[in-house]
Amino acid sequence: MPKRGIYSCFRNIPLYGVVPQRSSYTLIVIMTPPAKRSEDTDFDLILQSIKFGEGIIQGQCNDRSFEAAKEVGTGMHEVTLKAVSAPQGETIYKVS
Fold first, then answer.
1. N or C: which end of the chain has fewer CB within 10 A?
2. How many CB atoms lie within 10 A of CB 52?
């Protein structure tokens, strides 16, 4: 994906992968320094998940996988995230 517009403040977009059953996954989003973006920058982060059958490997999951799941209407749901910004470089997280 070309780095332009709102995506230019993120590094390595899109992010996707396979997480094994009963596992947790921590996603850390690294943004460019505030000096390189507007203070009033607004953006949405969406975490999507798909239930796959056995034998799916990392290279088989991509952006198209989510679109295909939406088209057939199976195994897909969206989770809304709350973004927390740590402008001073501190890491803010909560383990639940």
1. C
2. 14
